[in-house]
Amino acid sequence: MILVAGGGLAGAAAACDLAQQGRPVTLFERERVARHKICGEFISIEARRHLASLGLDLDALGAVAIERVRVARGSSLIEAALPFTGSSLTRRRLDAALLSHAAASGAGIRTGCLVRRTVTESGATGLELDGGEGVRGEGVLLATGKHDLRGMRRSPPGRSSRSQLCFKSYFALLQASRTALEGHVELMLFRDGYAGLQMVEGGIANLCLVTTSDRFAHAGGDWRGLLQSLTAESAHLRHRLQGATDRLDRPLSIARVPYGFLHRGGEEAPCDLYRLGDQMAVIPSFTGDGMSIALHTAKQAARAVLTGEAAAAYHERMHRALRPQMRIASGLSALGRSTGGQVALLLGARLWPGLIQRLAIATRVPDLPVLP
Ligand SMILES: Cc1cc2nc3c(=O)[nH]c(=O)nc-3n(C[C@H](O)[C@H](O)[C@H](O)COP(=O)(O)OP(=O)(O)OC[C@H]3O[C@@H](n4cnc5c(N)ncnc54)[C@H](O)[C@@H]3O)c2cc1C
């Protein structure tokens, strides 16, 4: 039995894949039902392809097509076609659909089941569940996303990530804003951060943003104050949110996301424990590529377990494959958070209209061949 800790996109995709290959697999997810998650919910073409290869049809789930991008800063605005058609769908709907699909494919799914830690005995790794139950398997896939298991901590975030805060909420926009936003993802740059806005299914818009704890504190330390401060700075955001109503009682938030983390592996780690999704790599959010990496590493980890590839070799392979995009994305993220970098980015995009497309392509993780 292969064990999967965590039932977000990475864990559910790996469980689904393994079950479809006829391997016994059980997934443990701490939540009873899928909930909203901090995510811009932009689904890249690569992520869409991965999901389609597992048999999940995003259009049937109500995904919205995204074909163009706008970048706004102050009163400046540029627009470009994306180099591919993206999609957008709430994580609540997507994660629930993928978990159900994994179950229908034959995976054992235990929801409401918190994994406490991994336990390695006589060279084989298993899981200890909340309540003390132990489960033993032939390989563990670690897919707990942003949450680390005891003893399996990722390296701490760098200084700039340590001070970052992420927020997400949904808004019902006025019709004029909805019409203007249709088919677009909008990236708004502001002092110390950026926000993404796009429609999801059901006619509501997802606003997801990254800022600093300093700015949040200066805005009064609450969501309303932060929104006021951002709309005062960004004419575009102000315009879009005019007359809009917040659809969540309070926004989702998260601190200390280890942006730029890329697992390197180490000889001390168990040879049958494979990291995937955010446990393998955390790419800066603005790329809209985190889900693609989650699905990509899920596919590769499933193959590694199936073929008996040692975890260290798998981690090294993933590290090599993801490093170029992680470097570019981390560099761009630093640029995009500084005033000079933002001005240079917009100026560059004005002078060279293909720049945005080139950057979008440069931060994508190509579909790697899997081991035979
Ligand atoms: C602000 C922000 C915006 C983003 N925007 C985008 C975007 O627009 N497009 C994009 O592609 N990516 C985006 N991402 C990245 C994307 O959300 C993640 O990369 C992706 O969710 C990773 O999937 P995962 O399966 O590894 O983790 P998750 O989706 O976080 O899933 C992990 C699962 O493990 C479960 N779990 C955790 N601990 C335990 C435990 N101990 N026991 C059992 N279960 C456990 C959790 O409940 C969860 O369901 C964004 C990220 C951030 C922070």
From TrEMBL:
A Pfam family this chain is assigned to: NAD_binding_8
InterPro entries the UniProt entry points to: FAD/NAD-bd_sf, Geranylgeranyl_reductase
Protein name (database record): FAD-dependent oxidoreductase
Species name: Lichenicoccus roseus
Species lineage: Bacteria, Pseudomonadati, Pseudomonadota, Alphaproteobacteria, Acetobacterales
